[in-house]
Specification:
The protein is an alpha/beta fold. The chain has one domain: Vaccinia Virus protein VP39 (Rossmann fold, 3-Layer(aba) Sandwich), CATH 3.40.50.150. Helix content is 44%, strand content 12%. It has a 5-stranded parallel beta sheet with strand order 3-2-1-4-5, sandwiched between helices. Helix 2 packs parallel to helix 3. The longest helix has 17 residues. The C terminus is likely disordered.
């Protein structure tokens, strides 16, 4: 694949993601595409907090381009989360008259042609982490951004990473509306972009 072809494929993933309600846009979205594509063959990516799948497309699209790897999506698919996000979730879900949040997520992933590169783990991060044994190459924390939610996800996945004997995990925490415990980008979290 030429550099030009790769750029076009990544732009297609970016465009697909932008058609879905979600948080990750602009340079942050481009960085997720780049990081996912840069991982070795067979990469295991865990995304905590998937909502409608906009971020999942940014992670799984490059894995499809590479022809290997899996994105494991951990989400309770019930619209819960931090106090900043829940009203946005409710507003977005109200626009869609039928189907569960998980139904919308699955429909978006399959419409993007990414089904083979995505595995769903319905539940909270701490619940899923209890039985997790697979080494993780990239951990993307994009779920409950409250201090309590970030701590729970971080502590539970930290235990899972140790259990899986993986010490080189890259962790990314998206921007938050309140001062973060730790954060890759310094900007405040934006409102999700509706379709």
């Amino acid at each position: 694949m030429t550099t030009s072809d790769l750029a076009e494929e990544l732009e297609l993933c970016l465009h697909q993601s932008e058609t879905i309600p979600g948080w990750t846009r602009g340079e942050e979205a481009r960085e997720l595409l780049r990081i996912s594509h840069s991982l070795a063959a067979g990469a295991i990516i865990v995304e905590i907090g998937s909502f409608f799948g906009a971020g999942t497309i940014l992670l799984a699209g490059p894995r499809r381009i590479r022809g290997s790897g899996v994105v494991h999506c951990v989400d309770p698919f019930d619209g819960t989360g931090d106090s900043f996000s829940v009203p946005h979730y409710q507003r977005i879900l109200a626009k869609f008259s039928s189907g569960s949040l998980r139904d919308h997520f699955e429909r978006n992933i399959h419409s993007a042609g990414l089904g083979p590169w995505v595995r769903i783990h319905q539940g909270r991060a701490d619940e899923v982490a209890r039985s997790w044994t697979t080494p993780i190459d990239l951990l993307y924390l994009d779920g409950d951004q409250s201090r309590k939610g970030v701590r729970a996800a971080s502590c539970s996945t930290s235990t899972s990473r140790r259990r899986a004997s993986m010490s080189s995990t890259i962790s990314i925490i998206t921007p938050t509306p309140t001062p973060p415990i730790w954060c890759r980008h310094g900007a405040s979290r934006r409102s999700p972009v509706p379709i």
